[in-house]
């Protein structure tokens, strides 16, 4: 658990601050360097609780050691057009001018940087004097790089995202050795309407950032951003975290609906096809794969698909990822629930879940394939179970009215003398004639 602020007689110790008032930065940096070396060699953190390694840092070191090479650099995940599309649609883009107003002076002094990351630790913006940015590039502190704890080790944005609290990380408190010449302070930013984590705002620079001033400044900037977002209701879904419940409704309708809490986004036909296909492929699809699923063998300009995805990203925000294209969070789709009932061979539950064909008006090859799998799966399960009541429900529905296989199964399942048997027999003969089959 994250440490709480502790108060003692005559003094207040803030565990989120890197240095106590009056502490010697050079001396503390040396102590931390030695403690870091001991941790890497022996896996132990020595000293009393109020020693050189704070509890919040020690906890982060332990987490980082399970995932990160201390000599490695943070990986670059977003570049060029993909980065630009993603960050322009991110909710924190709305408060970037505010961050620049509040923290730009620090970033412009030639020694410090202003950075903003998303909830996964991807740096969206890194701004400041050219010289400071050039130095930061050597440790991959650049837009598009992943700086959460599991990819970059202990650092202020990564720890702030993990523990949900503003924090400073000083010198060798950083787990990754290439980052240890730097000091940073970061504060998480939340969606004021849902409480969901959106990302963090950070200032990074030299040892002089290890003061109460920098921590208070990023905390104030984060609160100002949340206040600004609270007064400006957006039309896009907020960034979804691991516990978010995003549902997709696409059975029996051509305009799929994405829902997250009180937010509801109704998609057009093409965007419905894209979201359904991405929900069917949670691992993601490349541009070529998605194009094949949507358009088949039709020769289309690649710009067509990129334009559709760009428009969709403006609707969904960072819920949509690229390279590969995928949905960033698990989406609970009604057709996936239906598929689970089919896998469980539960015809009654499957029939209740089936509200019609998947995007019935779509001719996208990937959607057509999924639609046929579901329709055939329901029909085959009902035919195999031979329950007259379930078969009758299917054949009375618009999608089962012309299903000759289901009608034949219903006729065979009805007991002799049943009043419904005559009607079923007539319907079978009508369909035989319609399809040019021999009369029976």
TrEMBL record:
Keywords: DNA-binding. Transmembrane segments: none annotated. InterPro entries: GAF (IPR003018), GAF-like_dom_sf (IPR029016), OmpR/PhoB-type_DNA-bd (IPR001867). SMART domains: Trans_reg_C. One of its GO terms (molecular function) is DNA binding. Pfam families: GAF. Residues 262-327 form the OmpR/PhoB-type domain. One of its GO terms (biological process) is regulation of DNA-templated transcription. This is Transcriptional regulator.
